[in-house]
Amino acid sequence: MKLWSGRFTKSTDQLVDKFMASFPWDLRLYPYEIRASIEHVKMLAVQKIISDKEADEIKSGLNRIFRDLEGGKLQFNESDEDIHMAIERELIDRIGTVGGKMHTARSRNDQVLTDMRMYIKDEIKDTQKLIIDLQKVLIKMSEAHQETIMPGYTHLQKAQPILFGHYLMAYFFMFERDKNRLSCALRRTDIMPLGSGALAGTTFNIDRVLVAEKLDFHKITENSLDAVSSRDFLLEFLADLAILGLNFSRLAED
């Protein structure tokens, strides 16, 4: 039974299910889904919203699911639609109804967005490390070619003689801007939406700051509607990658 199927009397067509499922793509989010869920549950116990025993059961179940996924021993069904629903269903199958308490004081909306932000943060940092590695190579090659002369072109015609080292350092600075753009994107991505609920928060006495600290977010979102409805951090990362790709294309064409 789907979470949104309350007013429907018939099941959806399998073709529709396949088209709507994000599972083939968001399976990569499972480490973030499990980590965020564990920290959320620990906070619920600290706030006395669930018992320590219940929190321990849920954490243990999530850790077992993580180990099975890492070891390739667990495969999910696409009917779960997304990684959040899949892990929640698997947890309840394993430890019973107490597993449903993991969902207390949160929604699929704010939880999945938290996963996505954690994932993009790591992707940004990994991309920046790769850029730095490339820049080191450019510097090394530039130092080795401080006196190597090559033709400099403008409007597809030879214009002036330049040094090959000077040419290479032009790309160093292009990639430096790419790296700085990613730093700006990281600041806007590094904000935790968890606790925003479906769109208007929760009546439970949760501690969002505690969870943000445990998940390595530098701050929490300030408006729940904005938090769950905005995807601009994804668009910004994709735009930065497009510019980075353009600079690679220039280098390849040269």
Strand content: 5-15%
First-residue to last-residue Cα separation: 56 Å
Structural class: mainly alpha
Alpha-carbon Rg, integer: 24 Å
Summarize model confidence as the mean pLDDT: 93
Give start-end ranges of low-pLDDT stretches.
Answer: none
In short:
With 254 residues, the chain is mainly alpha-helical.
Q: Notable features of this structure?
A:
mainly alpha; 254 residues; two-stranded parallel sheet; elongated; two-stranded antiparallel sheet
What does this structure look like?
The longest helix is centred in the middle third of the chain and has 37 residues, at 108-144. With 254 residues, this protein is mainly α. The protein has helices at residues 14-20, 23-26, 30-46, 52-70, 83-95, 108-144, 164-189, 208-214, 224-229, 232-253; strands at 149-154, 157-163, 191-192, 219-220. The strands form two sheets. A two-stranded antiparallel ribbon has the order 1-2. Strands 3-4 form a two-stranded parallel sheet. The protein has ten helices and four strands. The chain is elongated and about 75 Å long.
